Amino acid sequence: MSADAADRLAESGHTVVYLAVDGRAAGLVAVADQPKTGAREAVAELRRMGVRVIMLTGDTRRSAEAIARAVDITEVQAGVRPETKGDVVRALRARGGVVAMAGDGVNDAPALAEAQVGIAMGTGTDVAMETAGVTLVKGDLAGIERAIQLGRATMRNIRENLFFAFIYNAVGVPVAAGVLYPWFGILLSPIIASATMSFSSVSVIGNALRLRK
Known about the structure:
Blueprint: H1 3-11, E1 14-21, E2 24-32, H2 39-48, E3 54-56, H3 61-71, E4 75-77, H4 82-94, E5 100-103, H5 109-114, E6 117-121, H6 126-131, E7 134-136, H7 142-176, H8 181-184, H9 190-209
Parallel strand pairs: 3-4, 5-6, 6-7
Antiparallel strand pairs: 1-2
Helix pairs in contact: 7-9
């Protein structure tokens, strides 16, 4: 056993545990977390979508930086205590950012509660899932990208539906009230008005169903 060997293991992303016999160092055990499959691709896609990705971890800096290099994360805050994770999220929110926190452990619960959007992995602890607003059933990091895309598509769909409803009412109600009658002699038949309102509902529902794709 040597200090150099322990340093090499730590730099490669391992957490080193020293073993002692009768108070004397006798060996070491190295434990390493492996990045989830597809994590690097998920991080790259989030960055392409304009999302700033930060790693918050209680691991040592050398171990954290090794994992960050493997998945191409450039911002790392290591050795962070559970309560400090919440402080980091609050600081990011104070700068005007919309913060989403993804985590799966008990230690992540304070930060999940502080974030505007807490994202828990379905393979994580019950505390994390109860605290978060979104739970990814499979615990796949690519699910974060899909959740963001679905959220954006939903908000876009809501704005489109409001536009459809506004146009139908803005045009149909004045005509039905006889605004055009003094000049053009146009009145809206109750049958046509009823059909128009039905078509308005159908267009809104049909537009919303596009989200299924």
